[in-house]
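Below is how a single chain appears once it has passed through the pipeline. First comes the sequence as given, then the structure the pipeline wrote out for it. We keep one example in the README because the format questions we get most often are answered faster by looking than by reading.
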Amino acid sequence: MCVTHANTRCTLHDLLEYYARRAGEYERVYAKPERQSDLAVLRDLVRGELAGRSVLELAAGTGYWTRVVAPVARSVLATDAAEEPLAMARARAYAPGRVTFAVADAFDLAAVPGEFDAALAAFWWSHVPRAELPRFLGGLRARLGAGARVVLFDNRFVPGSSTPVAHTSERGDTFQLRRLDDGGEYRVLKNFPDETEIRRAVAPVAADVRCVQLEYYWLLAYTTADADGDPGDR
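Resulting structure:
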């Protein structure tokens, strides 16, 4: 994920600093009145796809979606690269023994412990540079193996509701200028792929693909495939 101070180069340190400073503000985005209907649909779709599964959650942040999926999942390991938002996720109430937490990099999942038959990443795709999507999706497929169900969802760009795009790179990545309550200003990578781009990106690793387009959000669900495109026998 590429997050920078305005007019400075991208570093992992900037990414972690941004989310550490934003943790207390993060869930305001879920209060936008115009998005409530779509959010209700999104919550139902996520629960339906992940019910009864052992879920590896990536970029869990403050645990909003952990709380959504935990009541129906068999188990959830919620991970994030930034400790501050994850501390907020840990403080939420969950069914005993259902949810565990770990600091982890979504691009380096080999060291994440446990066995999973599903994965969830909410609002993460948009923060991955387009050139890095194959590495992320391939790494997730390698960690899960064939036959796991993956649910990824993110924002669609809606003028008047979405933060305007401030810059587009030569590689087609788009950036927003984000201002925090403490006065900090960051240029944040935020891509808005269309359905064709989404399906093309997952084609090498996916079978049984489902793509849902709402007004403010899109959702992708697929089964991890083996080398021949077969979802396996999980």
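The chain has a mean pLDDT of 88.

See the next section for the split statistics.
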